[in-house]
């Protein structure tokens, strides 16, 4: 019979490890999970991008961005930036580079307010990669710890595993919250500021689904692991409660004699 209290925390940690890796490395290559961007800013062929060299869309990921052109809403990818752990999207640098560095974005009709919005969120998004690395590392560590305790024939769950799972849960929760804020607030801000210039944005549903699935799995795994440790400790305490030793025949005889003498 499968002991789920022993397997479930490790299984959730392993799946969360995989999901976290996918979130972290999405968009680092032109063929790697391009539909799992944090958010995409689309510059429809309007007076802004037409003839300037600027791309129709810029998809923002945790460690990079990808760009390309739109053909009947189909994305034709032209390339991705080099991945960086401390990545934040620099709109001015990316767009002026595509435009040939010959003019300012303002003269092309790019809303300066969107550049300001991206700069404001830059420091926040820059930390996402670091938190993902820590959270993923701790999830992987929890899996390795379970393998070690299985080989060493240790207890079903340990405080070390509980700590790794809970810390991994906390570390992955932070970038997931940041991504959610970007999805609900930042995208709306870009759409409002870029409405007159034809600049719109949308957030990545699949990315949010993967990152929150990883967080949810770690929450379940750490909870089961903690409960297992507490239950096992209570059982151990009950087993080692002191039990009164039975009296010998001699002790019983002395006790009876003592009672009779007292009478």
UniProtKB/TrEMBL annotation:
Name recorded for this polypeptide: Actin cortical patch SUR7/pH-response regulator pali
Keywords: Membrane, Transmembrane, Transmembrane helix
Pfam families listed in its UniProt record: SUR7
One cellular-component annotation, GO: cell cortex of cell tip
UniProt cross-references to InterPro entries, sorted A to Z: SUR7/Rim9-like_fungi, SUR7_domain
Region: Disordered, residue numbers: 238-263
Organism: Aspergillus arachidicola
Transmembrane intervals: 7-27, 129-152, 164-187, 207-231
Top-level taxon of origin: Eukaryota
Gene Ontology annotations of biological process type: fungal-type cell wall organization
